[in-house]
Each structure stands twice: as C-alpha cells, then as structure tokens.
Design goal:
heterodimer; A: about 210 residues; mainly alpha; 9 helices; elongated; B: about 260 residues; alpha+beta; eight-stranded antiparallel beta sheet; about 40% helix
Chain lengths: ~210, ~260
C-alpha cells in the first residue's frame, strides 16, 4: 500500500522551487539557490562561533590545568585542549546548555583515553583499596613541609583518580558535576576522591619518613 | 570507637547518627579536630600546588581559531534540482567566471596554502637545535647572535623604549626577545620563509592576524610574534619604515659573533 504514496519532497528542492519563482531570473535558479544555502550556512557558522567563543573561552584554564596533569607536559596538554575544543565545536549544536564545564571535561577525558589507546600506552587504571588506619592520619602530616611533593604524588595517580582529585579539590566542582563529566555515579566520585587523597597522604608519609632518616 | 569519615564531614554529606557522633567528637576531642583540620589543610595545599600552572589561553585560542577557519571553508554544493532552462542559457552565467578564471590562471600567484598549513609552517620556524642563547639586556650582544647566522640582517633596534630579554640562534635563524611596556615580542630573522606568500599584505608588511607580522628585507624574512595583533602591526610598520629609510646605521659596528 505504501507504494502508492507520493514521494516525500526534499527540503532543498522546495527551497529551490521557491527561489526560482521569486527570483527575477528564474532560469538561473540553481545559482542564487546555492548562494543562499551557502550564505545561510556562513551566517549560522558566525553565530555559532560567536556563542561558542563567549562561553567556552573562559573554560580553557580549567581544561588546560586538567590536561597538563593528565599528559605530563604543556605541549601535549595544548594538543589535547585543542582537540577537545574542535570536537566541542563540532558537537556544540547538540549541547543541551547545562553544565558546560562538565560537558567539555567529558570530551577532554574521551580524547585523552582515545589518544592512550592509539599509542597503546598502558597506564594503571585503578588504585589499591586505601584503608585509613588509626588516627591521627591527616593530623600527623606537616603539610607545608610536604607541599613540594604533592605534585609528584598526584602525577603518579591513575588518570581517573587524578581527574577526580583535580576537579573536586582544585577546580572546586560539585560531586554531581564531576560525576557527569566522568560518566560515573556520584558514589564512585566520592570513593575515588577518598582513595586518591588517602594514597597521596600515605605515600607522602613514607617519603617524608625516608628523607628524615637520610 | 568507630572511625569518622572526615571527607564527608568537610563536604557536608554526613547525616543522621554519624553526623551526631562526629559533632560530639569535634567538641570534646582534640585529635578529632586535628584530623578534620589536617584533611582541610591537605585539600588547601593540593589546590595551591595544582593551581600554579601558567595557562597559554590566548595561544590556544589563536590556534583553535585557525583550525576553525579551515573547518568552515565553504564546500562545493551538490546539485539539488534538475535544470529545465534552454541548455545554452543555463551556462551563460559561467562566462564571466570563465573569463575571471582565465585571468587568474595567467597571472602569477602564490600556491594556495590552507590557513592550517600556514600556521604549521609558522610553528616550525625555529625548530632544530639552539646553538647559542644570550640572556641579558645588551642589544649589541643580541645582534651578534643575529649576525652570526644572517650577516646581512638589519640592526633590529626597533624598540626605543623596550629592552632585550634574550637572544637565541639556530642553524640559519636568530631571534631577539624584547619587552616593551610589559608585553614580550620575538623578532626573528631567517631566510625568506615560504609562508610569507600566504600572508595578508598590510602596507609593505605581511600580516597573520593571530600569529604575527612579517617583513621582507632583501632575501631575509623578519618575523614579529608576541603581543597583540595591533601592537605587532605598529611595531612591524615602524621597523619597516626605518629599514626603508636605511636607519639606524649602527649595523656596521656590529661584528658577527665568534662564540
């Protein structure tokens, strides 16, 4: 039965037909039609770009700080941010307008893991379960003394733990925002944050004890 | 005594019996207070340490804008409707285009290079080993670096109120980094780079709105980067005008470096 239905008109053909009726030189209908389509696209690009620039540019520092810690150096971090921005731009018309930072970070994270897969780099993805022992645990550490070693220990964390720590402790994002950007439940964010902090604390304790012995 | 989740205390997610227990301990127990404060100090210190990253926002944005330009370059439209006009009339509109194309083919012109390729060429300007670096505020020493690789380079004293930060030289290039009113500029000399053909002419200078300004001087290419587009344009035009006038004639007093 559906063989008898008329074919669906293609939107571009409708536009062309309208154009050839309205245009004084109807016989050159394909030229102004093409021009209009191109011009519309150009205007759309300009407005998309303007919106994108307004909202996304100020997120670059956050993206770069996360990228630097993930990649280990500025050059690779710049490339990662660059690819993130390009992918975000391509998908910007599909962005729902909520939690821009989380959305951008989720793109950055996907990009990062994709680049790891390409290079077949084998990074540790999980941490041993950290159990906080007897108190004092946090109070025992002289943080000013340990400050210079914090970066070293953060860099040794598996990527997802590092990202959780950066987003929660450095960028002050909420657990919900971090969960959205990493596509995990809020409980996983809490647990990763706890384990990341405890791992750093334990390793700093060992390192400081060793340096005092020496 | 059950251990308290200090993370949950700090983020405010502790509830019910556990919250009551934590609050009671915090009132009576100094160790508990020290634990909570210790974790808070750790978070604070981590934030301080990890925030100390210099972010090249403008550089990243400039590179991204360049990539966008090539991404948004118009693509040819596929024909979408069948033409019913007489065959010869349908092609009439091609006549001026054909004439323009013929003129364009006959005229000598630079090879078309995409903005992305131009940016890549600019990025590759000073790759290769740095053979010498001079850190200091002496223009003469910086010029020795320049003359060591480009004996015919003009004296790059373009910034009367600026200072030289450092100079570097590679196999066939040399750079002088200047600081003018807080902004840093890099002025480099090298054999005329290919990408100069693809820059926008502004007066006698050549412009890339995001990355820098170029000047052709004999067979040498002078490239100014850093600062803002407007600042670079001003510097390039001043330098070009001074080179045109053949000043300053200090260049004779600068001998090529022997180091």
């Amino acid at each position: 039965m559906w063989n008898s239905l008329p074919p669906r008109p293609i939107p571009e053909v409708i536009a062309m037909q309208a154009n050839s009726i309205l245009h004084p030189f109807g016989w050159v209908n394909s030229v102004p039609g093409a021009w209009n389509v191109h011009n519309e696209r150009r205007i759309m690009h300009a407005s998309l770009r303007e919106n994108f620039e307004k909202s996304v540019k100020e997120e670059i520092p956050v993206l770069y700080r996360v990228a630097v810690r993930l990649c280990g150096n500025g050059e690779k971090a710049e490339d990662l941010v660059q690819n993130t921005l390009l992918n975000a731009y391509k998908a910007y018309d599909r962005f729902d307008g909520r939690h821009l930072r989380s959305w951008l970070i989720s793109i950055l994270r996907n990009e990062f893991f994709a680049s790891l897969r390409k290079k077949e780099e084998d990074l540790p993805l999980d941490l041993a379960e950290e159990v906080v022992g007897e108190e004092p645990f946090w109070a025992e550490m002289e943080w000013r003394q340990a400050a210079s070693r914090i970066l070293e220990e953060v860099d040794k964390l598996p990527p997802d733990f590092k990202m959780t720590l950066l987003l929660c402790d450095v960028e002050q994002m909420t657990y919900e925002q971090v969960a959205t950007s990493m596509d995990v439940p809020v409980g996983t964010v809490r647990s990763r944050l706890f384990r990341a902090r405890a791992t750093i604390r334990r390793k700093l304790g060992v390192a400081l004890a060793l340096s005092e012995e020496n | 005594m059950e251990p308290i989740n200090w993370q949950a205390v700090l983020d405010g997610s502790l509830e019910g019996k556990e919250l009551v227990q934590a609050e009671q301990r915090l009132v009576t127990d100094e160790v508990a207070q020290a634990e909570r404060d210790g974790l808070a100090a750790f978070i604070q210190e981590t934030q301080t340490q990890l925030m100390e990253v210099e972010v090249p926002t403008e550089q990243i944005w400039a590179r991204f804008s360049l990539s966008l330009e090539s991404l948004e370059a118009p693509v040819e439209e596929a024909p979408v409707a069948e033409h019913k006009a007489p065959a010869f009339m349908a092609y009439l509109w091609l006549a001026p285009l054909a004439a323009a194309a013929l003129v364009a083919v006959l005229l000598p012109r630079p090879t078309p290079v995409s903005p992305q390729e131009v940016a890549k060429m600019i990025g590759e300007l000073h790759q290769g080993p740095v053979l010498n670096t001079y850190e200091g505020n002496a223009l003469t020493a910086a010029m020795q670096n320049v003359r060591a690789v480009q004996p015919n380079a003009p004296y790059l004293d373009l910034l009367q109120d600026g200072s030289v930060v450092r100079s570097r030289r590679g196999r066939d290039w040399a750079c002088v980094d200047y600081k003018v009113q807080g902004a840093e500029f890099c002025v480099s000399v090298q054999p005329l780079p290919k990408f100069f053909d693809n820059l926008e002419p502004v007066g006698k200078c050549l412009r890339h709105k995001d990355l820098g300004m170029g000047i052709r001087h004999n067979k040498i290419g002078i490239w100014i980067s850093g600062g803002t587009d407007a600042q670079r344009q001003k510097l390039a035009q001043e330098l070009e005008a001074r080179l045109e006038r053949g000043e300053p004639e200090k260049m004779r007093s600068v001998e090529p470096s022997r180091f």
